[in-house]
Amino acid sequence: MGPIHLISKEFEEHIQVPLATFETPLWPSVQRGARLCNAAGGIKVSIINEGMTRSVVVESPSVWLTQDVIVWLQTQEETMRSLVKTTSSYCQFQKWHHQVVGRLLYLRFSFFTADASGHNMVTKAAEALLKWLLEKRQELSYVSISANLCTDKKPQAVNGLLGRGKYVVAEVFLSRALCQKFLKTTPEKIIDLNLKKNYIGSCLAGSIRSANAHFANMLLAFYLATGQDAANIVEGSQGLTHAECINDDLYFSVTLPNVIVGVHGNGKDLPFVRENLTMMGCATTSPHGTSSRKLAQIVGSVVLCGELSLLGAQTHLDELMRSHLAIERKYDQY
After folding, report:
1. Residue 153: active-site member
2. Residues with Cβ < 8 Å from 232, sequence gap 6 or more?
3. Is 44 a catalytic residue?
4. Residue of 23, 139, 188, 319 marked active site
5. What is the residue range of 114's domain?
């Protein structure tokens, strides 16, 4: 689909985007959002921060000792950084965070993983850190190499608070005339729907740091087309849709704190994946992670287009079902 006019601090391009989905109306809907955003001058997108995570858990004889270990670890960050360098040419130690439950010490490590999504890279680095910790502090005992504080493929609050993968924000300013032309609606109706559906509805449902209409749809379609680990849509779809009126224009944005994508690693050597990555200018790898950053920003723009189009449709009583029936009419008998 596309092209999407994408504007970041690193590049500005019109990009054709591959989507793989069995939901037939999805790509026409995203395409409508893209046309609207292009008419408005494009989508601005930023990566606020990035870092792939892995957590481990150890056990100590007492909470006092656990506290001593935490204080000691605060003096060992340079050693930890040097140790991580020995595990990979690209992996870099960033920071660590701790949680304590009784005698249990949970450590959540964050790493820069260049152009890889980094699942295996961070596990290897965390394993090296864990072995080093158990050797240096022999009073500790091993519990698990993965402690569920990462958090991988589970809808939990910690990723939104501390980040996992790339923290992406995409935004667009839309005039009242463009809203009417492409969506047959007004800024006020989209703002009102976003409040009452995405925020109040999600609150009633007990959503965890998440208020959006269907981020998961666009993420899955993009992940399948580009060889990503599709299960990462679980944390990836935890994000926020924001809409407000500024100078009579609609300001519309999506925030995705947990976008996990890469252009190197498992699945990326499949011919169709290489073709799709090349089409978007994301096929090369570097120690700086340039291609994976670009890919994450494209993801953010695709999610914005799909979210905007669906909310526009849902401001009308009958448009959602009518469009599905029109596009999927061969399945009407079911």
Report:
1. yes
2. 117, 152, 153, 165, 223, 258, 260
3. no
4. 23
5. 51-144
